[in-house]
Amino acid sequence: MRALVVYESMFGNTAAIAQAVADGLSTGAEVTLTHVADAPTDVPPDVDVVVVGGPTHTFTMSREATREEAARRGGDRTPGGIREWLQALPTGGHPQDFVAFDTRVNMPLLPGAASHSATRLARRRGFSVTAPEHFLVYGYHGPLIDGEVDRARQWGQRLSQQLAD
Ligand SMILES: Cc1cc2nc3c(=O)[nH]c(=O)nc-3n(C[C@H](O)[C@H](O)[C@H](O)COP(=O)(O)O)c2cc1C
To answer: Which of 35, 61, 140, 149 has most ligand 1 atoms within 8 Å of CB, for mutation?
Structure first.
């Protein structure tokens, strides 16, 4: 099985989770881990699963304005995010499975998550989607709460088993 992991990250937390998910997936798959700025919009046909992760910004995936806000708070400035990448993918059927993850703050009552929006968009693009997962950070900048990197690695490993079936 081949997996493409695409991520976006301003403060490094989603990048750390993406690396851990890729490590977990690599127990059962050949994995390419790519920052969204370098991700191909023509997903190679030999890829079996596309895994996409990004930070939750204003209850959904980032936009130009929220990335600007993150940059003002000291985050990396990136020209596009997973929203723009998914929007640039061709419409119509995709042979790959799709699964999303996000990072978000550790506050139980906050609604919305980047991974839910990404999953909806991927479904509209014709992917066969699997339930998304969330990973938690302290405050706006992180760090990740204890145990999240290990949980991400285990989630990646479970995904590789589940999607190989
Ligand atoms: C502009 C902005 C809006 C945010 N909005 C939300 C939000 O609606 N819900 C939430 O849980 N976290 C929100 N956050 C916190 C981010 O989810 C957090 O910065 C992110 O998980 C860190 O990931 P990163 O280090 O990969 O950028 C927001 C952060 C920024 C910068």
So the answer is: 140
Does domain 2-164 match CATH 3.40.50.360?
yes
**Cα(5)–Cα(65) distance, rounded to whole angstroms?**
25
d(CA 122, CA 116): 10
CA-based nearest residue to 100, from 84, 79, 121, 80 = 121
**Residue of minimum CA distance from atom 28 in ligand 1:** 57
pTM over 0.85: yes
What ranges do the domains of the chain cover?
Answer: 2-164
Query: How far does the centroid of ligand 1 lie from the alpha carbon of residue 93, in Å?
Result: 31
Among 35, 58, 67, 149, residue to substitute to test ligand 1 (most atoms within 8 Å of Cβ): 58
pLDDT in tens, 84-139: 999 999 988 888 999 999 999 998 878 889 999 999 999 999 999 999 999 999 99
